[in-house]
């Protein structure tokens, strides 16, 4: 099992990791998910209602921000990420503004957006609860917060098979495609250590969000957790 970084080590570790794989990140996601990642992004875009102003936190190469723009062409979508190499690797049209920013200190006033999204970000934060609190802070009353992330795995007999795929196949793909097996060894280790989506839903509730819902995807290996701000 990959040794996970401590909370104090995590920001530097994660920034360095995403800096190394930025150029191959999109291709790797498509290959290791068998192309399912595009549908997951569409699911996030469909879960935000009819927003007029959307923030995508940890936007990376901005594929989710682009999916949001395509689904909601009248909305103003902004993407932020603390990895500048990831932002530079984005092929997203510059009609979608992208900016460097820390997910734990978002540079926006309270109540700035009526939807806040993230994809495969919350699991990587040094302080997951502080990150959720920041997303809730910039969300307007009645707005939607949507989190897409991996889970510890399916809750049935498929879990050992999913762990075999993540622990063995994904690092091999990472070495072959991205030239970085270590980054894709961290992925299964951090997923296995992450909250079950139902527990993440309760974290959202604890930060002033109501009626959380959980939608498991990819046989339960990925989950979309959403809620609304009171």
Question: Secondary-structure blueprint of this entry?
Answer:
Blueprint: H1 10-21, H2 25-32, H3 37-47, E1 53-57, H4 63-71, E2 76-81, H5 84-88, E3 98-100, E4 113-119, H6 128-137, E5 139-150, H7 158-178, H8 183-192, H9 197-206, E6 209-217, E7 222-229
Parallel strand pairs: 1-2, 1-4, 2-3, 4-5
Antiparallel strand pairs: 5-7, 6-7
Helix pairs in contact: 2-7, 3-4, 7-8
Number of strands: 7
CATH architecture: 3-Layer(aba) Sandwich
The assigned structural class equals alpha/beta
Overall form: globular
The third-level CATH topology is Rossmann fold
The CATH homologous superfamily is termed Vaccinia Virus protein VP39
Tally of structural domains:
1
For the record, what CATH class applies? Alpha Beta
Number of helices, where a helix is a run of at least 4 consecutive DSSP H or I residues: 9
List low-confidence stretches: none
What is the gyration radius calculated from CA atoms? 16 Å
Strand percentage, roughly? 15-25%
Order of helices and strands: HHHEHEHEEHEHHHEE
Q: Give, in spatial order, the strands making up the sheet with the most strands.
A: 3-2-1-4-5-7-6
The assembly state of the depicted protein chains is single chain
Mean pLDDT: 95
Q: What is the helix fraction of residues, given as a range?
A: 40-55%
Most strands sheet? 7 strands, mixed
């Amino acid at each position: 099992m990959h040794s996970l970084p401590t909370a104090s080590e995590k920001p530097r570790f994660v920034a360095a990791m995403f800096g190394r794989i930025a150029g191959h990140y999109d291709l790797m996601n498509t290959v290791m998910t068998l192309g399912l990642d595009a549908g997951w992004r569409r699911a996030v875009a469909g879960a935000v209602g009819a927003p007029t102003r959307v923030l995508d936190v940890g936007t990376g190469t901005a594929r989710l921000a682009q999916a949001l723009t395509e689904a909601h062409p009248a909305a103003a979508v902004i993407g932020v990420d603390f990895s500048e190499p990831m932002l530079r690797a984005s092929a997203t049209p510059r009609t979608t503004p992208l900016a460097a920013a820390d997910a734990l200190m978002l540079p926006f006033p309270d109540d700035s957006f009526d939807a806040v999204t993230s994809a495969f970000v919350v699991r990587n934060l040094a302080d997951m609860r502080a990150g959720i609190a920041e997303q809730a802070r910039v969300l307007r009353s009645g707005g939607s917060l949507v989190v897409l992330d991996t889970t510890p795995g399916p809750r049935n007999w498929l879990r050992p098979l999913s762990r075999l795929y993540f622990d063995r196949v994904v690092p091999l793909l990472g070495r072959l495609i991205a030239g970085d097996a270590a980054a894709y060894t961290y992925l299964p280790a951090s997923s296995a250590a992450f909250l079950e989506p139902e527990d993440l839903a309760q974290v959202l509730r604890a930060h002033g969000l109501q009626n959380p819902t959980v939608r498991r995807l990819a046989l339960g290996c990925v989950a979309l957790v959403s809620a609304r701000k009171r």
